[in-house]
Amino acid sequence: MSGCLWPCATAGASGDGAGNRKGGLFRSKPRTPAEVVQHVRELLAYILDNREACNAGKRDAKLEHRMVELSKSIKEMKGILYGNGEQDPCDEACKQLTEEFFKKNIDTFRQTIICLQYLDMETQKDVTQVVANLQRQKVDSRLVASEYLEANSDLLDILMSGYENMDIAIHYSTLLRDCMRHQVAARHVLECQRFRNLFEYMQFPDFNKLYLSISIKKK
């Protein structure tokens, strides 16, 4: 590992001032990985509280600002988990981020899934990459994502229901596939009533359901 991305190199995590809350000459102290997740959680809660405005396409300046801030913060999470191209990610930073993201009784993952449909395409892609990475992260040799999904299996049902919405189907299919890397998630999907519907959705040419089908059969 060439160096720790956090906290000494935080400013380069996402390329556009990641880790700094203010611009100009006077910048605040970089957020810790846990604080980045907490900030994302606050932004997600605000957007979900204003989902009617999102659905109606009536976003005011405050909501638009929150959407932009959320996109930057998710990209910041991505930078912590994957590195910035010049420095490798820091194991301790990844651990802290993972612990906070899957923290009990807070449900950042649930907020992220529900809010996904309101995000722009680029941010949706960043979310899928962040979630994919988090599925592999270990905390004290534990796959906390697997433990989380076992306790919140209804989220897998939400992801499967996303196939009915063509605007988010491709991203939900990617998230579901990554979650199914865990045996507990794969078992739930295979035993779920919605499972048979997945093969019906494969008829749509808009996104690659075949890969998902193959992934399921390999479990």
UniProtKB/TrEMBL annotation:
Its protein name is Uncharacterized protein
Gene Ontology terms: biological process: intracellular signal transduction
**Family note:** Belongs to the Mo25 family.
GO MF entries: protein serine/threonine kinase activator activity
- Pfam families assigned to the protein according to its UniProt record, in alphabetical order: Mo25
Q: Which residues are listed as membrane-spanning?
A: none
The UniProt entry, under SUPFAM superfamilies, shows: ARM repeat
